[in-house]
């Protein structure tokens, strides 16, 4: 412990020096969202700028603070000023800001997003007063975007591994009791009480037990686990250590998709650092507890997020689920008791141990304590990774935090392909496991896909079913064949090939697949269809009876036309049309040849976006046209 | 334990699944993926039931029954759901044969000529009339298809030998995948891809040959549909009869069933229910016997070589000709060669005939080379397969279990999977290698040295290093160790010294031995006849002391030896070079009754499955015919006489061998001049005189003769593709062979299965250099 205390003291000093540095610190968000938004280019420019101008400053790469729509984010701490954040960095802009701030001490406040000081500074608002962040409660995401995820000292300085320290001072049963009292439920989506799972495993006698961290995040549009691991890997690892201690596991696996190279890199790096500090391996922190972690890269099969399939995959078999019981907590990996916890569940655990279960219960509502992270995507103004207390109404998440939709709100899909579509009238549903279940969807791992009136729900259901169908492992008949027939019916509806009878067929097939499939993947696969049929039936009916797609999305049911009276002949649509369907000389109304048009929407987007011609290209239903 | 199924009180003695409990009490729950030999799977979902207290619809095959459980298997909801599930399966399975209003009338026409049948009777599915899917459809009375049909359009897979695969008929019950993994422990096939693209087969689209499939045929046996079918009996339909017998193709004499139709052998399968048999057989027992029985190379009439060419004789002419020629020979002037594939009865008759009618003691068999004596005396100690499986440690010595010895390799694999440490000594990998804790690969020609190193370590209580250390520790600590070996060492130079060293190791370690050999009835041969070694007889012929030769089933010569008269009696045409004067046909396994004797002296009897072809006579009848012509009418070959001779047989004995001459052939000093080790083997896969490779295309496809087998990694390094030719050069010899890649050969080794009785390279194993012919 003494060693550990000195590491902590050292780390605290390193951290304090950061907030009050001798030379300026430049922070750059380089999680996957930042990189996708161009952080690599910004990083190069920052380094070049510092070198060329002889500025003495340090670049620190941090993770994602959650405001992904503002990436790349660059923060600067200098001259004793609070840390100032600049969003949507472009290389030129970053150069300009660094030169202005670090050479001329001009904070360039009009470009600043916010600052992390306590009061106001230089007319720059507080970062956390931004609408997206104001309504959040950040527990799991506490360190994300602040610390350097590749530096264990940053984590240690911010109370890292204190939860583990506390856990090791009490008995495993007491750890389980604390988690039970905190009321933590599985954040992977099903909401099974974590402590209950642990207790089953703890109470199953065996000489070998395993703990598996399920980082096989596969829902389309979901990236909570990815960003958490990329931004704060130690939180998850500390959670694993505590969980392993509680259940009596001596070996752990992190099952992570190979498509997450940065997260894997961060984990490997973190594990190596833990070794140097005696935080992993034999006799951790001088206690009698020993634990080792292996990283198992999955080949990207959606079904491998299912516990039994995941275990098969680690065992070297094809990832295919098997019937439960026996549950993994009784007989899992290699037939030994195994607990599988989601990344976020594990990331929450250190905080509960550190601050106590009573503290944790202050967030959320009865039976659904604590917070949940969501990745907010789709037709929403502010996309990103957020964390809210359970029980927060969806409306608050979408409108207050997410800033609402561009066009009129239509629906939100929770729980990825296993979840369902919730319409506007149910937006006051609080996000709890039970309330979401009651409206026909699931909490899921945290993907929130927001749709506006430009989205066709039939098309959405088709998309999700197609995804599930392609990811079906092929083991059980209802999932392998049933979903295929559902996709075919949905495709036919989108093409206007079928009549109202198809809806009945679709519904009964969906119910059959739901009740007879082997694993959760198949059982929940019909959810998108069942919920859209429940809440948006008129839209389905429009498709089958009138062959009309109200959202003007289903290609077979729409046509593109140029309104000659509006067209200015700017030729922009001509240049983007991939098939040469639009022709016409400059400054004269263009002509759209429907036989060549593949309805890719490119012309519509350019015409609308720049508003030069003011929507001269319109989409009409085929019936109208 | 008491539970209720469909309001019936049921008492169970032990834990079992609901499905098993129901079946035990004659309650049928429809199912397709469940299989009595395999672990519960729960894939087809047809066996869903309702259980009070359990949410949803659990599958009977995966749910373990419990005290007081209330199960309902027949409700309206379940029936509807089962029908829907079945419709889903049928929507991907051609249903022309299932929903057809002309079905009943149609079956009347299906017995017409094949060509007509094919066009009018929908006989495109090999499982017609034996289809489990169809039985479930009939049971559930599904009479229509509400869902659109789709045909997967997958190409027929016919490029592998012995069985065809049409995955358009597959219902993904995974029985094949599971039996390959659970029973055979091969895991050659698996599910591939996902969703609607899901199919079954070896990974990375390899062929079964490339994926080292053993062709045990277990997958074909358990397939409920026509997705997998045996090439040789694809269109024969349901067999008329299943007749128990034994396989004569190696010393294990596995229990088999001959499948017969219209008086013909159409296939062989392991004993047991035809649909539930696992992978107990090897490719030879599972697929080769029926091909042999119906082979176009079978001898069907006696022939005589004359000046005008080959002349077909009647049996009377044959007897006369043979009698004339045999009568000319003096006492001990005739050499008789017997085959270790003959039944005890055939052997007894032949021995009786040789002694009494031909008046000769010069009786031998080609398998009796001068080294075999040492091996046979070692094999006297051999334990049973059960004892092998109960050992605490297993070590195999130069054993090549590829496509061979299925009961042995399975026992080793089962034991090793159950935790018994298993080590493999030798150059070749086989199906057991995956389960080995360690492999020791000697340098070329240094088998003797390696074994004496092991013996030395055991004697001096030293440890060695690496795998050797681990193996020695295991041998010392285990209470019972069994060494496993076959006849492979006999191919090696210095075989006698190698065997001596093995004997020493057995003595020092107190270990047991398990001995396998590729001959069906070697011990019957050795117990019925007093034999001389082939080497000795060869010398007598060379010296002109023997000038008449009667070869019965055996194949001692590639070329015609020095002899005045050669009679060849066999199942198949003789080797091209033998050029016999008189050729007599003989029946084969399945056409005759008889018995085989095993190492312990135990006898296994079998009946004839079919009548032998009309033009053929049983072996004793031939001898009787010749005797009569010679004038020795009092010598009888009746059934009773023969069976008396068989039961009079003594314990098996080893022919007198001249070990000094065998020792003289000892290996020269180990030669490691070149970077590859060539391992040669004479083809052990024979039935009587015939090489299975020559007769059966499939055998040649899986492990060809006179082809250089090379490790895929080595092949890639050398830039060799399938079908290329390689020159190999040793210090003394060079030759060119076509190439095939196979993982059974370790990197740095090449393997040659020799069709001839003489290995092309000396010594064996031999250090060689490889060169691509085009370079």
Could you walk me through the main structural features you see in this protein, from its secondary elements to its overall organization?
In chain A, strand 14 and strand 15 form a beta hairpin. The mean pLDDT of chain A is 92. In chain A, the strands form 6 sheets. Chain A has a 5-stranded mixed sheet. A 5-stranded mixed sheet of chain A has the order 13-12-16-14-15. In chain A, strands 8-7-6-9 form a 4-stranded parallel sheet, sandwiched between helices. Chain A is of the alpha/beta class and 625 residues long. The longest helix of chain A has 19 residues, at 477-495. With 775 residues, chain B is of the alpha/beta class. In chain B, the strands form 9 sheets. Chain B has a 7-stranded mixed sheet, sandwiched between helices. In chain B, helix 9 crosses helix 19 and helix 14 (447-460) runs parallel beside helix 16 (495-509). Chain B is globular and about 90 Å long. The N and C termini of chain B lie far apart (75 Å). In chain B, 52% of the residues are buried. The chains are: A alpha/beta (625), B alpha/beta (775). Chains A and B meet through helix 18, helix 19 and helix 20 of A and helix 2 of B.
C-alpha end-to-end distance of chain A: 77 Å
Largest interface: A-B, 30 and 34 residues
Biggest sheet of chain A: strands side by side, in what order?
Answer: 2-1-3-4-5
- In round numbers, the mean pLDDT of chain A is 92
Overall shape of chain B: it is: globular
Summarize the structure.
The complex is a heterodimer of chains A (625) and B (775). In chain A, 41% of the residues lie in helices and 15% in strands. With 625 residues, chain A is α/β, with parallel strands linked by helices.
Topology:
The complex is a heterodimer of chains A (625) and B (775).
Chain A: H1 2-19, E1 25-29, H2 32-36, H3 39-52, E2 58-62, E3 74-77, E4 84-86, H4 91-104, E5 112-115, H5 131-134, H6 152-157, H7 162-169, H8 172-182, H9 194-203, E6 210-215, H10 224-231, H11 233-247, E7 251-257, H12 261-276, E8 292-298, H13 307-314, E9 338-342, H14 343-355, H15 357-361, E10 364-365, E11 368-369, E12 371-378, E13 384-389, H16 394-401, E14 409-414, E15 420-423, H17 433-438, E16 447-452, H18 457-471, H19 477-495, H20 501-516, H21 520-524, H22 527-535, H23 537-546, E17 558-562, H24 572-576, E18 582-583, E19 591-592, H25 602-610, E20 617-621
Parallel strand pairs in A: 1-2, 6-7, 6-9, 7-8, 12-16
Antiparallel strand pairs in A: 1-3, 3-4, 4-5, 10-11, 12-13, 14-15, 14-16, 17-20, 18-19
Helix pairs in contact in A: 3-4, 7-11, 7-14, 8-9, 8-11, 10-11, 10-12, 11-14, 18-19, 19-20, 20-22
Chain B: E1 2-5, E2 8-11, H1 18-24, E3 50-51, E4 70-72, H2 76-90, H3 103-109, H4 114-120, H5 132-140, E5 163-165, H6 175-183, E6 190-192, E7 199-201, H7 218-222, E8 228-230, E9 241-246, E10 255-261, E11 264-270, H8 283-293, E12 303-306, E13 309-312, H9 315-328, E14 334-338, H10 344-357, E15 363-364, H11 372-379, H12 385-390, E16 393-397, H13 406-417, E17 422-425, E18 438-440, H14 447-460, H15 466-477, E19 481-485, H16 495-509, E20 512-515, H17 522-528, H18 534-542, E21 548-552, E22 565-570, E23 582-585, E24 594-597, E25 603-606, H19 619-630, H20 639-648, H21 659-664, E26 676-682, E27 686-687, E28 690-691, H22 692-695, H23 697-702, E29 708-710, H24 712-718, E30 725-729, E31 734-741, E32 749-754, E33 766-772
Parallel strand pairs in B: 1-4, 14-15, 14-21, 16-17, 16-19, 17-18, 19-20, 21-22, 22-23, 26-32, 29-31
Antiparallel strand pairs in B: 1-2, 3-4, 5-8, 6-7, 9-10, 10-11, 12-13, 12-23, 24-25, 26-33, 27-28, 29-32, 30-31, 30-33
